[in-house]
Model the fold of this input.
Amino acid sequence: MTEWFDLVVIGGGPAGYAGAIRAAQLGKRVACVEMERAGGSCINWGCIPTKSLLRNAELYQLMRTRATDFGMVFTDLSYDWAKVLGRSQKVVAQLVGGIEALLKKNQVEYLHGEASLINEKTIVVTLGGETVKLLNTRHVLVATGVRPRELVGMTFNGSTIVDSRQALSLKKQPGTIVIIGGGAIGVEFAYFFNAYGTQVTLVEAMPQLVPLEDEEVSEALRISFTRQGIRILTNTRVESGNVTNQGIKLDLVGDTSDTLQAGVALVAAGVAPVLPPGLNCELDQGYIKVDDRYETSVKGICAAGDVIGPPWLAHVASFEAIQAVEGMFTEGKPRQIGVFPNCTYCQPQIASIGMTEKEVRNARLPYRVGRFPFRISGKALAHGTPEGFVKIIIGEPEGELLGAHIIGAEATEMVAELGVAMTLEATYAEIEATIHAHPTLSEAVHEASSAAFGEAIYV
Amino acid sequence: MAEITMPKLSDTMTEGVLVRWLKKKGDVVSMGDVLAEVETDKATMEMEAFHDGLLKETYVEEGQKVAVGERIALIVADGEEEIPAPQGVEKVAAMPKRRVDEKKSVIPRPKPAEIEQVRKIAHLEEGYSQAPLRRTEAQRAPLQVLPAPAGGRVKASPLARKIAARMRVDLTRIDGTGPGGRIVQEDVLAAAEVEKAAPVAMPVEAPVSPGPGTQSELITLSPMRRAIAQRMVESKTRIPHFYLSVELDAGALLELREQANRDLHSSGEEKLSINDFILKACVETLKRAPEANASFTENGIIRYRNVDLGFAVSLEEGLITPIIHNAETKSLRQISADARGLIERARTRRLKPEEYQGGTFTVTNLGPSGIDSFHAIISPPQAAILAVGSIIRKPVISSSGQVVAGQRISATLCCDHRAIDGAVAAKFLQEFRKMIENPALMLL
Done:
């Protein structure tokens, strides 16, 4: 039972489904093979369910700590852990259904099973050891993504040592949790568990939390998290972890050399690529190596998304897959990723695009910085979210935007404007010339860029 | 009663074609109604009525050419009778409908030559709403373009435009690689690179055949010599230079320098040169007269917010102007330290490109070479260069009318008249005088 396709996409995540749909739009016959659930990590175990949990946490934390500020009195405020987690599953189910419907609408053949490459033109799809289908194809797009990486000697067990996916379905709320890794995933879970009253310790090997972000932003997050009651240990790594009767015991080395006891250890300290069986192409540090057309060392096989290496971001993955597909079937050269936003959804939220101040300094570019704190934003005060700031780094002498860094409520929504500005190569002058609505949080973007030249009205 | 004549819709317009009547003879018209469409040498425009009344007469057929000022139509108010004689008739040129944001209309109107140039470009961007004249559908064709304010016609990113202006790259000669052929930063930088690599060929004069008995040698042009030759020709032939000179009292400056250097010497630090003071004085002057810290471009005058101060350093094979970036933020001692480092690297040819490219203003000081006063050639795209001579002891007449011994220094500001007028240049020199004669101001 062999079928012919123009393209077989292996993986149904943000790279896979986006690439498959784009190819179908171009009139190609496409199959998309997914071994778990359509939508990949993003929809099932990553971006989406965590955002749902974080929303629950925000509301609960607001009610618990600040209800009276807003004139509300609760005599018996409580929550149902199963439902806290349950809502995220409903959201996920709805979106998974949406992706499957989109694939169907675009007449992509969606196959559930594991794809193995026989050669660059033939793929066998199996499910539970049974062969489902044999596919012949002109092109292959590998978009198999990544999975959480284990620490040596700490095998994930779903109860005391968990990855971010397992953390979504912990049957009981842990009383104490150690989160290993202070990147985006780590700080989001730290915020989530802390908001519900779990005692959280966050361990990061680098000197700063969210190490990819601007130093000032990291510092602001550290202060905010500490205030919220999260214990933060930077410059510290976990040397070993042992499961005990009560949970887990961790030995730390670095700035804090200590032994921690906790109910659960959540490891969010990196990812590892998932490679489809039968793919024999060149790798770079384990990730699939591609050229500027997203083609692997095997002709006819392209790869996109997390599996070709960092940044591991859904929006980058979709972009790459669409470019790869356009490279296969249309004239013109696929584009490489340029600037892209980074978003972290704890409270305060973090969003950034472009270079950090440190990177600008290291590149020896002439620059100036404008900042605007939300504590003097009318909208932020009215909303009760005065935490954080907008920081914009402007190049000299042309005034181009080198980087923008936002920490505060709705930061992740505000960064879009700066993305458009950077893509269009707008300069300080165009941001300044754009009338921003008052009162909004995004006025802070305008004010921050004006502040770089001492022209902000409200600073 | 009002006689409508062909309006002069641009400074070059001598005649216009009445494309289409939108009102017919006998129609009642009110102020603001569009009477007709008129095609000029540049655009088709709507001609609007400025009177209420009856369109009593139309003198022109559709498609007919009409000289500016010639009558087109006659509008009479209700009950008014037409008076055929020209006497007593109020001649009103119908005005084109405008949609002008007054604030934006300060952008200089294009000159005929510029328009010609733009026509050749034939790049038209849609949605060009800041154009001072409303355009009709019919003239969206590429050749009917007026230059948009701040250059809306060539598809280029704001950053690309700014870099092009600074590096003097002609955007109309670049093919954009951005979305929809838009010129992006990378394209401009690549074009600048190409221009640098292949400098415009200099017209080379035929080799002079020396007369009998003449002895000569041909010195091959070094890349630096070639670059100087090219830039100087470009500057002197394209930029309308003018020069203003002053002679200043340098006594206080010398005194301050001596004092400062005594202190610095005793603490084992590097001394300040007269040039350091001149550079600092120039930076402080530019803060007070920012009009001189500028570049003229076809799209407008760029006024720089920061002072990237170039200063000429002579080398064996020519000269180079290293740049003190953001000099407006630097103290006298920082400027001195920067200058010392740059001179050292210039002499050993170790300057990085960013250390001698760019620059918003230049100082050239031939004082150490014993030159009393001189004129310099502007370094494009800058709008001015300050030429400073040596400090000379000479008799001067004091404020009390006595002839006394003075320490005098000359300064000549050489300006691009397209960007700077005499009054602005004079203001610069007045401020410069203040700085040199009251050097303590530099230390504030």
Observations:
- The domain at 239-443 of chain B is CATH 3.30.559.10 (Chloramphenicol Acetyltransferase).
- Chain B touches chain A through 17 residues (CB under 8 Å).
- Chain B has a mean pLDDT of 79.
